[in-house]
Amino acid sequence: MSGESFNWHEFLGRWQEEWAPREDEDEDGGQTVVPPGRPGADEAAIGAAEERLGRRLPPSYREFLAVSDGWHVDETAGVYQLGGAADIDWFQDPFDMTPLYEESLGDNPREEDVLLAGMWQRALRLETDSDMSHALLDPGDSDQDGEWALYVYKGWSGELPDRYPSFRAYMEAMYRDFHSDRAERPDFVNATTRAQDAHVEEARLLALRGRYEEALPLLEEALAFGRPRSAVLLNQLRHLLAPRSSRDYGYLVADPRYLPEILPVEAMTPARGEWRLGGDDHWLGMMTARGAARKTAEAVLSTMRDGTHRYAPPGPWGRAVAEAWESARWGATDAAWRVLRDALPRWEAPGPWLIAPIGLLADPVLGPLITPERGREILATPRAGERGPAPDPVPDLDPPGLAWLTEPVANRGPRDGYRCVWVEGIDPARLPALIGEEGAELSAPADPRDAFWPAPRPHEREGVELWEDRAVVAVGRTAGAWAFAFDGGSRHLNKLFLSPAPAASSSGRAVVVWRDPRSSSSGDRPAAFHLSVAEGGEELYAFTVRGTEIQRSGAIPEALDPALLFRPEDTELDCERHVLEALHAELGLSLPRFALTQGRLRTFITRSWTRAPRAGEGL
Prior knowledge:
With 619 residues, the chain is α+β, with helices and mostly antiparallel strands. It is 35% helix and 14% strand. It contains 22 helices and 16 strands. The strands form three sheets. Strands 15-14-13-12-9-11-10-16 form an eight-stranded antiparallel beta sheet. Strands 3-4-6-7-8 form a five-stranded antiparallel beta sheet. Strand 1 (71-72) and strand 2 (79-82) form a beta hairpin. The protein starts with 7 loop residues before the first helix and ends in a 14-residue tail after the last strand.
């Protein structure tokens, strides 16, 4: 109901025809069976009101009075009755609200706050019956068409007033609320409800055809009218547009067709520890109230919390998901996304009220891959048998090589230390046996904010010596088929360092890199960089650069010569970038940035990166 012209006769007439009590109202009381309008006021009555007030009324309110001289708004816990031309008068701030709002303006107030502070003394009061609420038209807050903003202040709420840009905007909102309050009544059926339900179905088909931008406003309007299923469809679109948000899918959690996708998604927030309304019991109670079995909800929450949940839909889409999962679990997130992207047209909805594969979001391995850009690509892809143009693919997220380690990215600053072991041509699952502490096993997929925390210090673990430096490492595979174990929270590279490269190289060539940043808190300790390469259990070559000092051993290839890579005239950051670029060019080493900073890789605890001190050596 927007546009330059507006037909108040048609609008109010439709509202009158559709009038019905809410389900919670007592129809026998007689208060809701009477239609809400009155005969319109004539021009003389409206003119007399304007002369009494000393102001010409704003256009939309004036036009309203000419059609209906007052209205039973029936706003829930708010304004009930709007008076006619003879009833309205200036508000005059009887509760001294002006000083309260002026005190909060501060030294540099926003224009809207200044307008609100002055509104109380100049506003025109419209209501004649309410629940401690007031409908106030403000002549000081007007637009180019002469419309006055309307504020609804609910005195019992303690909240700021609700602002509407005009009287017409307020009435349109109240009409939508009127519908929303009665949407659950099975007998509340009329031309408006039928039109909005048709919009919901139209939006559903548009969404499946990839035309989600056209579906959004249709669903938003239908939701404002309270139409069934509009919220659950709209939340799917909004969830993929903002994948890290949380959404409510109502009673779909109890439908066996949708439960495998919906219930894990609903469990994401409590699994992250972000549920604040009574904890797990409250969340479980909500799920059971919607019809989900409590044991099922408990089991899903448990797998979401420990990272073992797996999104496993059926059919061709499910096979693509399984293939993508195998790639993503070792860090090949761009390759995994390409598999999902190619398979999206083959996704089939398990029922009419699921319009996108939102179950992806709950998978601990695949969920992090769905960025807002990729969420839009999912929504823009025709699926479930519908046809339409395919969207342009979003770019890959991982840069080649290692140079990204010198850049500030999520969870890491440019001055953070790191260390990594690469082993050529082996399954990453073998790394715990090669360099892990006794009994080390791969964890469930871990959040990088946790994975890059240092391993417990020696004095915090029974059976660990004080000289030991064990690391929590994230495990994966590079595009060049190197298995890697990466620690983004490394400690000081000290004189007791023992490279794990020989132990890691029993099955193939192994490379170890350790970057120790400069530390001003430890006597301005210079930055250090270590490289060691081993094969068949024997170290081939190594170097350690600490400030201007270089220690080297073995036949180092010219491309990796530290004297050429760490030049005195270059900055510390430039030297680091030079050696990382050389390692990529000479050995084909890389690391997946997205998986290490935003994805979910498995982890294990390594053996110590330091040896036992010899006689006379300190720790």
